[in-house]
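Researcher: Quick one. three chains, 897 residues in total.
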Amino acid sequence: MKKLFYCAVAAALVVGFSGCSTTEPVDETVNVPTGTQRSGADAAGRGVVQEERVEGKALDAGSLLSRTTIYFDYDSSTVAPEFREVLRAHGDYLAANPSVRITIEGHTDERGTREYNLALGERRAYAVRQLLMLQGATASQLEVISFGEERPAEFGHDEAAWRLNRRAVLRYPARR
Amino acid sequence: MRAINRVLLLKMTLLLGALLLSGGAQAVLTIEITKGVKGALPIAIVPFGWSAPSAAPENMAGIVAANLARSGYFAPLPEGELPSRPHEAAAVRFSEWRMVRVDNLVIGKLELLGPDSYQVKFHLFDVYKGRSLAGYSYRTNRRGLRRVAHQISDIIYEQLTGKKGVFSTSIAYITTVRRGGGTRYSLSVADADGHNEQIILESSQPLMSPAWSPDGKRLAYVSFESGRSAIYVQNVETAQRTRIVGFKGINSAPAWSPDGSRLAFTSSRNGNADIYLLDLASRKLTRVTTSRAIDTEAAWSPDGGSLVFTSDRGGSPQIYRVAVGPSGPTGKPRRVTYEGRYNARASFSPDGGRLVMVHRGGAGFQIAVQDLRGGQVSIIADTRLGESPSFAPNGDMVLYATEIRGKGVLEAASVDTRTRQRLGFARGDVREPAWSPL
Amino acid sequence: MGRYLLIAVLLHLVLFTILMVRFDWWSSESPPATAAIQAVVVDRLPQRDPQPPAVERDREQEEIRKREEKRKQEERKRVEAERLRKEREQAERRAAEEKRRREIELAERKRAQQEEQRRAEEARRKAEEEKRKKAEQEARRKKEEEERRKRAEEERRRREAQRRRREEELKSLLAAEEEFLEGERRRKNQAELERYIERVRSRVESRWREPPNAREGMSTTVRIRLSPSGEVLVVKTVQSSGDAVFDRSVEAAVRKASPLPLPSDTAILPNFPEMNFKFIKES
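Model:
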């Protein structure tokens, strides 16, 4: 089950970013317009926007919940507006399901020093935690772990890899 | 250069004038030499004699030559250009070594004394003076031969440069190997030349920040084996290990105090990363920093009286220094670095006069040395992704990690930037080198 | 022409006359030049004696005779007396005459004497004048002589000085020339020495490997002895840096530089074949 979940997340990421990279990079310096966000479009997967709209609002929430990775600017722990919707959805879900406990992983790209990045990853995870708690999630539901740059999602040594590594990841327990 | 020469010439002329005027019979022409060449010292290292008909168990001369060459201060004569191959002092004819223009000559021999018992003898000569500078004899086993070669290298290095050699020291480092979907993390210890690697810990979870105890017997490091970062101390010889710090949040960047009694480390147990001190005997914990910013990467001054650390309290990561006493900080942290947008993971030179750090000046993360008295910053390695720099125990070189064509490698650069050497490792990405004490 | 001459003569005559009249007029107005002398002579003339007393005749015959007699006698007596008186007078006259004559003679003599004296005086004066003149002349002559001598002396001195100056000038010119030549020679030697030092320096410098532990300010001085062909025979550390490695690098550099080049003339090298090398670690 756990494996399956990871696979789903990974698949979503791959689809999302492959789509994105052909249009504009998911770099915070080139923000996805917020208007698109509000209309329910998925920044991580424009390719599936049409299909999701047909499904309606329920699927929107599901789509937001399926997005568990929040990306950050270089040396920043500020959650970009485009990801607040995602965190709102997760916060709502956690508030509605107080028995669910998740782990927030903080990660950084490889640039800079490892120990500093470990702290920076933690700060990112805490930033995410803060937003989830604003929606009603409780501290006991949220565990924060930083991996700094030690667990990159991408192994490259360029911005294409780095922008995918500056992230916080919401880990749900293997229950689906 | 030309201007200097002209000044010199003037000086010379004045000196000469004085000489000629004095006209004394005692006056001797004195020529001033103020510029030498920075090149490496030519040295001949003759392959050591070997008593048995079988191949020698270790290429002693080869190890010594490689060590000396790596330091940047020596240029060993290629084996093919050796005019002769003496193994005994009596067989050395200095004139032929002068002809090939080497300053120094090393000869030696290896003898099998018994089962797994060897004797190593060597001599170091000053070719131009025509006399021996050093000569030693060792007894060891097969495994110890390499160590003996490093010791010989140290002796030669110290004799000819006036500085302690670091060839007998060890380095600890982290290696990652990606296999299939997973990554294997290992903590290894090797000779300073990268040989004789021994993996002392392997994990599927990240390992970080190895730090040698001042006695060189233990390593503190960060392991994520519990799912989150915690600090462990492991005896290198016995492999006995203890988790010594495992607070909530991150636990990282361990640094032994010079007397070995305390560990400085980073903990976010109070919400964000701060520096703490742990007394290893009493387990007493002292908080050093209290800022809401990230404070991490503490390093001790050689006298144990202060710490430097990285903090982004000013907006971007910079180096700060704080005085510490037996019961914690004794002053407010003061910023040390002002050049560049990013300065992090500083550590002291053995004499305490300089800091080496990761410095982001232009495009990349470079390795820089800052003089603590004058404040000047000099880039000693213009790396794109340099990290984890530390001084060699003799202060001559800086060891750091960087990335070459997608692969993590270790490099050593002489502080005077004359040489930059890559340490060869067969496998994986290598990073976070820590140079053992002398 | 003749007329002019006549007129000139006439004019001269008129002039002469006028001058003479004027002279007379001038002289009548003024006392004669000799009056004082004549007065002196008159003053000196003797006083004349008084006339003898008249004889009485109214007495008797006897009386008369007597008187006659007496008169006769008296006449005789008187004649006698007359005669005597006459004689006396004569004698007196003669005496007076004589006296006057003598006085005149005396005066004359005196005058002559005075004249003589005057003349002598004059002569003396003249002589003195002459003498003075002569003296003056002599003095002038002497002075002139002196001045001439002085001038000559000065001239001599001037010439001497000039000669000396010229000599000096010549000497200094020679000295300067000599100095110039000496300077040239020294400059040449100096230049050659500098070139030589530069050659040696670059040879040694290119062989000196500064040891890595060398610190700014470290300095070692070695004294070497060269063979006639420039081989470094002996290297002696005369001032150590205190650091064995640094000292050794210095000795090695000097030995490696052997043989050193030599100048065409080793005489330009002070104290050849010894030479010092001072190695200094600069920044």
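Chain B has a mean pLDDT of 89.
Researcher: Thanks, that's what I needed.
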